[in-house]
Amino acid sequence: MLTPNQAQERAVALVERARRAGADAADAVFIADSSESVSVRLGRLEDVERSESEHIGLRVFVGRRSASIGSSDLSDGALQELAERAIAMAAAAPEDPYAGLAPEDRLLRGPLPELDMAETTEPGPQDLRALADAAEDAARAIPGVTNSEGAGASAGAGVVALATSHGFAGGYAGTNRSISASVVAGEGGAMQRDYGWRTARHMADLPSAAEIGTMAGERAVARLNPGRMKSGAMPVVFDPRVGGSLIGHLVGAMSGSAIARRSSFLLDRLEEQLFDSAITITDDPHRLRGLRSRPFDGEGLPCAASNLVQGGRLTGWLMDSAAARQLGLEPTGHAARGHSGAPGVSPSNLHLAPGSLSVAELIADITEGVFVTELIGHGVNGVTGDYSRGASGFRIVNGEVTEAVAEFTIAGNLIDMYRALTPANDMEWHRTINVPTIRVDGMSIAGD
C-alpha cells in the first residue's frame, strides 16, 4: 500500500502530464485499497479473500468543456494515453457555463488535520478466523438459535489523494475493521433470521466478537412467531439501526445539484420550520476515527463541523463548486469524489442530537404503535418526499414493547414525518449516521 505522500505524488504527476498535453486545468484523484476477510459457517472455514486495487481518475478542462476518465493501469504509457484521450473527449464535449475547479482562494492551505483514521497493526488471517469463530459460537449459544448463515471478520486499508492544477495536493490514509454474524432461529416455516455487525477504523473500537454474536442470536430469537399489525394511523418508533435512514433522505434532498434541477422535496423550504425547534443535525468531517472523516473535500476545499439543521431549520444546501455557481452561492466543503467523474456531494459523519427523554419515557404514552427494527425496499420519492417501506419489528401496547410483528408497511410524507419527529436520549456513536431512538407520530400502517 502506498503512503499518502506517494499517492499524492502520483496524482500531481498526472495533472502535470495533462497540462503538458494541452489541458487548461485539471485535477486527479488516486484511490488505493486492500482488504482481507475470513468467513466461517457452522464452525468450519468457508472463505478467505484478499483484494487489492489502485485506480486513478483524471478530469480535464478545455475552456468550459470538460471530460473525466479513469484507469487502473498506472504505467507511463497508459497515463500518457489517458491524458491525451481525456483532452480529446473534452474538446468534443458541450460547453458548461458552471464547469471548473473550485475557487483557488478557497483551497485548503497548510497542514492537514490529524484524524487518527489508520492504525499501524494489521490482523492476520488467523486473527480474523478467531474473531469470526468467536462471533458465531456466541450467536449459536443463544437458546432458540437453530442454524447459522455464517460469521466473518475483515480488515482493510486505503489511501486517497487529490491534486489540482491550481495549487492543491493532499492525501490521507485510513483503515477499517469489521466483525459480523448472521443466524437463524426457529424451525421450518417459522424460521427468522437476524444479524449483528459492527465496523470501526481501529480494532480497539469494536465490541468483542462474542458481544456481536450474542446480539445476532438474541435479535433472531426475539423475532420468532411474529404477529400482524392492524392498519391505521399510529406512532412509529425507529430503532437506531434503521432511524439513520430518515436523516439520509434529508441530506440527499439537500444536494445543491438537486435544488438547481428543482428535483428535491426540500425545494423552497430553506426558511421553513422543518423540525421541532429543539432538533439539531450536525455534520462533522473531523471526528476522530470517524467512518467518513476527511481532512479535505473532493475539490481540495477545507471542511469543518457544521449544523445542517439548527433550531429545526435548514441552514443551507450541500454544494460542490458547479452547483454553487449555478445557484449563485458558495461551495460548502461537501464535494465528494469517486474513482472518476465530476464531484458530487456527500456529508461526512452525521448525527441527530439526542433529546431529553429515555426510550421508556418516549413510548410511555403510546397506546398502540410499532417499534421498527428492519426496513425493506426503497419506496421513497426524492422529489415529493412520499415515503412507503415494508417493515418488521415489535408491537407497542400501553407504553410497552411486546410481541414481534412482520409483513406490514409504514407510510407518510417526509415533510410531515420530520415535523412529528422526537428523538430519545440513547445516542449511539458507531455508524456513519448516528441517531438515538426516534419517534414519529401519525404515520400510516398497512397491515391486516
Automatic annotation (TrEMBL):
It holds the Pfam family PmbA_TldD_2nd. Residues 231-447 form the Metalloprotease TldD/E C-terminal domain. Residues 26-90 form the Metalloprotease TldD/E N-terminal domain. It comes from the Bacteria. InterPro entries: Metalloprtase-TldD/E_C, Metalloprtase-TldD/E_cen_dom, Metalloprtase-TldD/E_N, PmbA, TldD/PmbA_N, TldD/PmbA_sf. Residues 122-224 form the Metalloprotease TldD/E central domain. Coiled coil: none annotated. Belongs to the peptidase U62 family. This is TldD/PmbA family protein. It comes from Novosphingobium ovatum. The lineage of its organism: Bacteria, Pseudomonadati, Pseudomonadota, Alphaproteobacteria, Sphingomonadales.
